[in-house]
Design brief:
By secondary structure, this protein is α+β, with helices and mostly antiparallel strands. The protein is built from 7 helices and 11 strands.
Length: 221
């Protein structure tokens, strides 16, 4: 087979893989024997790491695996909601105002490294991550690093009640516009590290302080 023909065959195979937009079950005998990370749990920040795959689905030329068979139907209903997006990538629309009245739009992120934290007052893991985020913020604050704490609480009264007893060193915003959906936040806490308007790292659930610090350090260079 000539090089030109080989290139055409590979291109055709790639095109067919991308065209396969209907999720197909991976046969049980084709499931990996080694432990793998569940795509649904990873998207939700479950944090339990690799487990034995009990089911799998092939979608757009790639196989995705699950630790619970019930997750398969959820994935099939909306695969794009669980598949990680490439990094870096432009940040979605963000046109919120913090509680002090400062607007945070695209212009506000130019030339800055910012950690956006989507959270809620009722979320246990969010409260667990609060001191971790504040330690990261303190380590890089003198270099211009900022943290935006974006509350997804439905009621402003719940947020105000929480803030009366808990302080935040950086701006707090109330997501009354449902921007969390534009950012594909299906579970909280959800963290996005933004550099000059580009998402360069992201995490779900409870995250180790060192992991965030490492990403911030790289972004501050």
């Amino acid at each position: 087979m000539t090089r030109t023909l080989t290139t055409l065959v590979l291109a055709l195979a790639a095109s067919l893989a991308l065209a396969q937009d209907k999720p197909l079950d991976v046969p049980k005998d084709k499931l990996p024997s080694a432990k793998v990370e569940c795509v649904v749990c990873k998207a939700r920040g479950a944090g339990h790491g690799p487990e034995r795959a009990v089911a799998g689905v092939e979608y757009r030329g790639r196989a995705y695996f699950f630790c619970n068979a019930k997750e398969v139907s959820e994935f099939k209903a909306d695969p794009e909601a669980f598949i990680p997006l490439p990094l870096p990538r432009p940040m979605p629309k963000f046109d919120l105002t913090d509680l002090s009245g400062q607007a945070w739009g695209a212009e506000a992120f130019k030339g800055k490294v910012v950690l956006i934290d989507f959270w809620a007052t009722w979320c246990g893991p969010c409260r667990q991550m609060k001191p971790v985020v504040e330690k990261v913020r303190a380590k890089f604050a003198d270099r211009g690093f900022r943290v935006l704490s974006v509350s997804t609480d439905e009621k402003r009264a719940d947020l105000d009640k929480y803030l009366a007893k808990n302080t935040f060193p950086d701006p707090v915003l109330h997501d009354t516009e449902g921007r969390f959906a534009d950012w594909r936040v299906s579970s909280i806490p959800a963290f996005f590290l933004v550099k000059d308007g580009q998402i360069v790292a992201e995490w779900r659930g409870v995250v180790k302080q060192g992991e965030i610090e490492k990403a911030v350090e790289v972004s501050m260079r």
